[in-house]
Automatic annotation (TrEMBL):
Presence of keyword Metal-binding: yes
Function (record text): Endonuclease that specifically degrades the RNA of RNA-DNA hybrids.
PROSITE patterns documented for this protein: RNASE_H_1
Cofactor needs: Mg(2+)
Keywords attached to this entry: Endonuclease, Hydrolase, Magnesium, Metal-binding, Nuclease
Any one GO MF annotation of this record: metal ion binding
Protein name (record): ribonuclease H
PANTHER family, alphabetized: RIBONUCLEASE H1
Family: Belongs to the RNase H family.
Signal peptide residues on this chain, from the entry's feature table: none
First-tier enzyme category under EC: hydrolase
Domain named RNase H type-1: residues: 4-133
GO biological process: DNA replication, removal of RNA primer
Length: 133
């Protein structure tokens, strides 16, 4: 991590009832002694879209490049941004089975937003006692 950049801890979670159905995301951002919470809801969405939108909104809300520790309970989001995305981009946003990547609009936004920062992507087991999950 670049020691000249601010260190921001971000915690995100997304959910959906019905999948698709009504859903939303929640974000907690911490910098030193400051905490900011963001959330939004949608009448028709999916769980995976909400798991992606939380980190996107958090990263896009930062006004300067930062060191980020981003914690989520979504393996889909974490594996997608750290592993799968490289192959998807090489294959013009197609999966290994030659089908279009789902939620490509959000994956492109997450990719662009994460390029502005140094992000350490962390996973935490969902609903297992973590205070920000």
């Amino acid at each position: 991590m670049n020691t000249e950049l601010k260190l921001i801890h971000i915690f995100t979670d997304g959910s959906c009832l019905g999948n698709p159905g009504p859903g939303g995301y929640g974000i907690v951002m911490k910098y030193k002694h400051h905490t900011k919470e963001l959330s939004d809801g949608f009448s028709l969405t999916t769980n995976n879209r909400m798991e992606l939108l939380g980190p996107i909104i958090a990263l896009e809300s930062l006004k300067e490049p930062c060191n980020i520790v981003l914690t989520s309970d979504s393996q889909y989001m974490r594996q997608g941004i750290t592993q799968w995305i490289h192959g998807w981009k090489k294959k013009n946003w197609m999966t290994a089975s030659r089908t279009p990547v789902k939620n490509v609009d959000l994956w492109k936004r997450l990719d662009a937003a994460s390029q502005q920062h140094k992000v350490d992507w962390q996973w935490v087991k969902g609903h297992a006692g973590h205070p920000e999950n």
